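Supplementary Note 2. Why include the ligand at all?

Several targets in our set were suspected to adopt different conformations when bound, so apo predictions alone were not considered sufficient. For every target with a known small-molecule partner we therefore ran a joint prediction. The input for magnesium ion is given below.
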Amino acid sequence: MAAMFATALFLPLVVGDYYLQFAAKVMLLGILAMSLNLNVGFGGMVSLCHAAFFGLAGYVLVLVTPEYEAPNLVWTLLVALAVVALVAAVIGALSLRTRGIYFIMVTLAFGEMLYFLFHDTSIGGGSDGIFLYVKPLLTLGGLSIDLENPLTFYMVALVCCALSWALITHLLASPFGDSLTAARDNERRAMSLGIPVFAVRLVAFIVSAVMAGLAGYLSAAQFGFVAPQMLGWHMSAVALVMVVLGGTRKVAGPLFGAVVLVVLEDILKIYLGEQWKLVYGGVIVALVLFLPGGLQDILRLTLPQGWFRRTAPVTQPIVVGGKQ
Amino acid sequence: MTKDLLVVEGLSKRFGGLLAVSDVSLRLRQGEIHAVIGPNGAGKSSLINLLSGDLSVSAGRVLLEGKDVTGEAPHRRCRAGIGRSYQKTTIFHERTVLDNVRLAAQSARHNTLAMRRVRSVEMETEAAALAALQETGLADRATTVARQMSHGEQRQLEVAMVLATKPKVLLLDEPLAGMGHSEAKRMAEVIRGLAVGRGILLVEHDMDIVFAIADRLTVMADGQVIASGAVEEVRRNAKVRAAYLGETEDGA
Ligand SMILES: Nc1ncnc2c1ncn2[C@@H]1O[C@H](COP(=O)(O)OP(=O)(O)OP(=O)(O)O)[C@@H](O)[C@H]1O
Ligand SMILES: [Mg+2]
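The joint prediction is reproduced in token form.
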């Protein structure tokens, strides 16, 4: 994976600005999907409000940006992520008291609350959304990072994407990662082994929300515009489809899910025009059904235990030397 | 001098209209195996769940070394020194034997939220894990994936994981269930060895084994304790013979 990120550093040498922007967009969605999968695949928490964290960070950037003056990259980012962390702590603390399908519904409800907060009030321009006229800028001595520049933006997105991947990989290899996956595999046993399951899940939820926020911040900076759609359940579902497509067992899986989905969307838009959505839906359904792994995992995590066992091949203990 | 590790006072658990555990009191001393027997549905597993915190009590108290832990969550009780195994095997099937015990050792005694590995902690965890495997006779299976072991070995792992948490008190819910005869006998010896310096509450159906390794015996029926005391004493108890060993009170 590290090699792939390194190779991506050279993309600007072979393609133009349009494709760089496209690649940056894919990587930001990849961050969102990978962060979601920290919860879904490794935490066993199928959240349907990750777009809300994504969009919230974007809105915060636009709202704290002074008119006609370049926002400071560092502090606007810190403010945006702090707000997301705080909101995630509250949503997590309340929704993590439920499990499975109920957790999905509660997170969905919280996500929609944030959506309507921006859709129905004038905080962020209502349903029309709001523009960001000048993009974040960081000047450090002689060096300046200006997100207005497509090449710079691409590099920033690439670095953030690689860092997100590295961070999740690192976390999963730590004792915290052991606790998180143990709680996913058997909550009761995890507790009886001394793991404070609720606290572990809450931390994972907040970390993942903050990463989704990073993606959302950069996304708002890229398009110079935020709208309530960024926070809605539709966007959350798209992220979940990326996770399912890419597979839940590998950290980078959802990143590839994002690539497939966004590229598919673009190709279909070009060749099919108006009807693209119909085919798009069909192809996704086919991919999800015929690529086992992701979907099965989601079902196993959300349905009550007995339900799934019946349809899945039961793994029998192997009989050793006639024992058993 | 033997000290009381666990003191249980008037413990009850109500499930709707059913009193699954009714006013149970008992003591568990250091170095002692205290067996709990009783017919199916007597409330043995429920009792263990109350002691481990998996179930919340309806009434009564649980004291660990004199400290009231009645309201504590399961993970806190584990860290305080109460380790438990389950009647239905709850090992992590996709992980290796060593990873299972390592997870137990790490979770019970170190920071479960730690976001990086610390060398000294890793070494301590590894040592505790290997010791637990050694004590339960699984040392040569360390690299096997748990799912691929025989049922008996999985039961051994279930106990090894409890051991790796370095508990003062072990609550073992039918650790020999489903094991072959010779396997069960070997495991019984292992359990006897575990009692040194610890206290063990053992739920078990096999009478021969209970009589062979237990120091004290509590008999439960319909959630209640019908007899409790030294093994020989309880064995001669007429009420027990009638209710549990299937003999009539005036017969025999
Ligand atoms: N979570 C629960 N909700 C409702 N009733 C329960 C629950 N757990 C146990 N019971 C009931 O409580 C009674 C005691 O069950 P328990 O599992 O403690 O018995 P046991 O002595 O362990 O039996 P066995 O030897 O079969 O393991 C049974 O009647 C059981 O149906
Ligand atoms: Mg039982």
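Chain A has a mean pLDDT of 87. Chain A touches chain B at residues 170-171, 173-176, 178-179, 182, 185-186, 188-197, 199-200, 203, 315, 317-321, 323-324 (CB under 8 Å). Comparable summaries for the other entries are listed in the accompanying table.
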